[in-house]
């Protein structure tokens, strides 16, 4: 593995101290004007705290979840930022130290205590730190290895662990559920330690409509999947969890993940209504965290795009190093497009479409599972040492023209995953929202771009009351 010694990066200050909560606060408009068609709430989830006492987390994924809400009304924008008060968060806050295992941390207690925790689902802390799902009456903070947590949509008060009326205690529920824009139905998954991939089809409020299970060959890492017309598609990369090390508490989960490229990537095509597997195949090895979108094209083939890494080890190490502020393991991903035969699962074509280092591909929520033109990404600025820094630009790839349009935010400014917000007044117009950390000013801001004219200046920039650490995923909830 190539290693490179680096200095502490400018963005490291955004992670060096636990984030500060703030209540409903009017937000200052720094430039531009809030579009009249931008009305609703932005929610983002990520790690707000990466230290407890003198101890630091072992991996970026270990941090305690904190939710940012920005509310756009006719009176302007207001913001709220709150930690998700899980049982683990409250217990560790009282103790002043880490008490649980996590993605990059072993359980600190004796092995018998670890075993007891495995039985009652307390060995690993549910950090509630990955994404959010907005239902009609509550917001879910998602963490894929366990149950969601429910929060008040307005105040972000933590209401407790959420079982949706059907989840068992500790049952995994994906941090990347997919909502069909036409029916409102929600599709989710969960992988358990019995080598089983659980599939869930829910109504728009999370009530279970159908479930099924697929036996896996071992215990892989399945972070997300694709909705493509009448199908769900899974690309299961050759990553295996070494379960004995987890059982004996000799390794944290992140250290027990093995990259086995000789196995190739497993492709599974599932009927979205019955949740029945239709086809299975294998293809070249790669790893992905995130897909942009998928659809069924008129010729009967499935088309999807994703941020592809050539291996798992480098991205895992990169993410482990982020909390230290020093990247020693470069990690590279690019936007690829795949076509496959849904009848056999055979990959017909697999090629890069954006060769700039990028991640967090997203589309308009109205395009999920449907034919689409634009995929939006976070990417590195030109001239930046790719793979060794956080992202400082946004991109829009147009499949109709093959063109990449870029918004370069300038030196020492860092973006988060872009969120698409449809305009409430003009059907074909939308806005791209990203939380920006300006390291020179040591300030977090919210920038809004015209999604169709990304290379133009932002339509507005809004100051946040305090630094919000780089977050993972979010959603837009339009005003009713």
From TrEMBL:
Residues that bind Fe cation: 176, 223, 290, 473
InterPro entries: Carotenoid_Oase
A molecular function GO annotation: carotenoid dioxygenase activity
Keyword set, alphabetical order: Iron, Metal-binding
Superkingdom of the organism of origin: Bacteria
UniProt record similarity statement: Belongs to the carotenoid oxygenase family.
Protein known as: Carotenoid oxygenase family protein
Organism (species): Vasconcelosia minhoensis LEGE 07310
């Amino acid at each position: 593995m190539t290693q490179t010694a680096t200095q502490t990066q400018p963005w490291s200050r955004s992670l060096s101290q636990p984030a500060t909560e703030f209540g409903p606060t009017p937000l200052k408009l720094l430039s531009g004007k809030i579009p009249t068609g931008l009305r609703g709430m932005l929610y983002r989830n990520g790690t707000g705290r990466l230290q407890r006492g003198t101890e630091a987390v072992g991996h970026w994924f270990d941090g305690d979840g904190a939710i940012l809400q920005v509310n756009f009304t006719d009176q302007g924008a207001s913001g709220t930022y709150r930690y998700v008060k899980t049982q683990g968060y409250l217990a560790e806050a009282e103790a002043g130290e880490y008490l649980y295992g996590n993605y990059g941390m072993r359980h600190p207690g004796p092995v018998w205590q670890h075993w007891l925790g495995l039985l009652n689902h307390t060995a690993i802390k549910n950090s509630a730190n990955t994404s959010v799902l907005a239902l009609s009456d509550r917001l879910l903070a998602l963490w894929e290895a366990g149950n969601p947590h429910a929060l008040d949509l307005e105040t972000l008060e933590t209401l407790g662990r959420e079982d949706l009326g059907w989840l068992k205690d500790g049952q995994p529920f994906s941090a990347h559920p997919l909502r069909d824009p036409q029916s409102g139905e929600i599709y989710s998954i969960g992988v358990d330690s019995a080598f089983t991939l659980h599939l869930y089809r829910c109504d728009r409020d999370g009530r279970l409509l159908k479930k099924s299970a697929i036996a896996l060959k071992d215990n892989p890492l399945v972070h997300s999947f694709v909705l493509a017309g009448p199908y769900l598609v899974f690309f299961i990369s050759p990553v295996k969890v070494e379960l004995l090390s987890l059982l004996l508490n000799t390794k944290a989960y992140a250290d027990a993940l093995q990259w086995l490229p000789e196995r190739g990537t497993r492709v599974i095509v599932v009927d979205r209504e019955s949740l029945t597997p239709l086809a299975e195949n294998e293809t070249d090895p790669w790893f992905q965290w995130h897909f942009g979108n998928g659809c069924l094209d008129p010729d009967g083939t499935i088309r999807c795009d994703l941020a592809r890494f050539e291996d798992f080890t480098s991205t895992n190490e990169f993410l482990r190093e982020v909390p230290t502020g020093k990247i020693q393991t470069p990690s590279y991903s690019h936007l690829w497009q795949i076509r496959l035969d849904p009848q056999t699962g055979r990959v017909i074509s697999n090629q890069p479409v954006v060769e700039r280092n990028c991640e967090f591909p997203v589309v308009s929520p109205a395009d999920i599972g449907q034919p689409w033109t634009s995929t939006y990404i976070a990417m590195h600025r030109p001239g930046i040492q790719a793979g060794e820094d956080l992202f400082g630009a946004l991109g829009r790839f147009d499949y109709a023209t093959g063109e990449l349009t870029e918004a370069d935010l300038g030196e020492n400014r860092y973006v988060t995953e872009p969120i698409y917000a449809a305009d409430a007044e003009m059907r074909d117009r939308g806005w791209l929202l990203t939380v920006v950390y300006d390291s020179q000013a040591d300030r977090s801001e919210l920038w809004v771009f015209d999604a169709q004219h990304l290379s133009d200046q932002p339509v507005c920039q809004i100051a946040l009351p305090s630094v919000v650490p780089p977050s993972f995923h979010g959603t837009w909830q339009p005003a009713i």
